[in-house]
Design brief:
The protein is of the alpha+beta class and about 375 residues long. It is about 40% helix and about 25% strand. The strands form four sheets. The protein has a five-stranded mixed sheet, covered by helices on one side. A hairpin with a 5-residue loop joins strand 14 and strand 15.
Length: about 375
């Protein structure tokens, strides 16, 4: 009887040990991140239609070891320094991955352990100088914006913006070269998503998707990108402007056909932020010198957390103002593919989209040039 009891206990211990070991099976992501200001990293991923967030402890040298159970290719977002920066890791069941880099330069963090991460790390290595310049420039711009807010200044760093656009252009060209060379890889789809989904030129996204071939185009990621490409082409320059129905701050309903035969500027702005205020100020100057019989402006405020809009500037805007209740979730934001604010779209008298993302100071020139072309 004693031997029998001992055997039962022994079997139970084996089961417990086996169960304990099973908890440590799965996907392992370990690494070392320098310049962490907090003793933890937050990591999120989608698991069985559930958004999961975990906290990973790190030691003084920034070393960590994260183990999780997944059953398919999963995208992990590692948030560093309390969401100040982030790194993305692509992992599948049973893989062992390594992560190494600097929290101050998240675009250069190296991830290795499978084909996707290895390819993306290779791309980062080839473009290390460009990525480092871009990160440093963006940090400088953020610092200047904070100082401008403190000083209540509305100066725009045009040189910095031009330099940033140049760096992004070079990176986009290099990404396209990579995609051409690797048309059947998931890493190419990821680069398409990173460099082409926010482009003002929807034809560029359509073009690079055309390079892709093979089974990769039947994946969920590819299907979503193709669907997104079709969507943004519906609000591209040269197409008929999508229908909208808005309600202005006076309760009047607005439709696109209300402006038939006129130029219409749709200006998407916010009640907060220096850039939106500067946009309103510049548009006022432009509007004062325009023929009201041929040009109309509509400003759409998309502050989802501030309604009704109380910003005093609204009282002195001489054109129609729309306080959009649903903010970023509104139909017009989706239909016109507005990704950020301020954002100006010019619609021609024939109802076609003449230009997107026009700087406020360039609206008068855009309308005048368009008028000359139509003569």
């Amino acid at each position: 009887m004693v031997k029998c009891c001992k055997m039962v206990v022994y079997l139970l211990l084996l089961l417990l040990i086996a169960g304990s070991c099973k908890n440590f099976e799965g996907t392992q992501i370990k690494g070392e991140i320098s310049n962490l200001e907090y003793p933890y990293i937050l990591v999120s991923h989608l698991s069985a239609d559930t958004f999961a967030i975990d906290t990973i402890s790190v030691d003084r040298r920034g070393k960590f070891n994260y183990i999780c159970n997944i059953d398919t290719l999963t995208t992990f977002s590692f948030y560093l320094n309390n969401y100040e920066s982030a790194a993305v890791v692509f992992a599948d069941d049973g893989q062992k991955l390594t992560v190494k880099g600097d929290a101050h330069f998240p675009d250069l963090i190296r991830v290795n352990g499978n084909d996707i991460n290895d390819d993306l790390t290779f791309f980062k290595s080839k473009n290390q100088d460009l990525l480092k310049q871009r990160t440093q420039l963006m940090l400088n711009m953020q610092l200047r914006e904070v100082l401008d807010t403190i000083r209540n200044s509305t100066l725009t760093g045009n040189d910095e913006i031009a330099q940033l656009n140049l760096l992004n252009h070079e990176l986009t060209l290099n990404a396209e070269d990579f995609i051409k060379e690797h048309p059947a890889k998931m890493s190419s789809l990821i680069l398409i998503n990173e460099f082409f989904t926010g482009s003002e030129n929807p034809k560029a996204l359509e073009r690079v998707l055309g390079y892709m071939q093979g089974d990769i185009m039947r994946t969920r990621a590819a299907v979503r990108l193709k669907s997104y490409s079709q969507k943004i082409n519906r609000s591209a320059e040269g197409v008929i402007a999508p229908y909208f129905q808005l309600t202005d701050n006076g309760g009047k309903t607005i439709h696109p056909y209300d402006f038939s035969g006129k130029y219409l500027l749709l200006s998407f702005i916010s009640t907060a932020g220096i850039e939106s205020r500067e946009t309103v100020s510049l548009l006022k100057k432009a509007y004062s010198g325009m023929n009201r019989d041929s040009v109309e402006f509509v400003s759409v405020y998309i502050d989802s957390d501030i309604y009704p809009i109380e910003y005093v500037e609204n009282d002195s805007i001489p054109w129609k103002v729309v306080p959009e209740k649903r903010g970023w979730g509104s139909d017009i934001v989706d239909a016109y593919n507005v990704q950020y604010i301020p954002y100006n779209i010019l619609i021609a008298p024939d109802g076609t989209i003449k230009a997107r993302n026009i700087p406020a100071q360039g609206v008068s020139v855009a309308i005048n040039n368009s008028s000359k072309e139509s003569m």
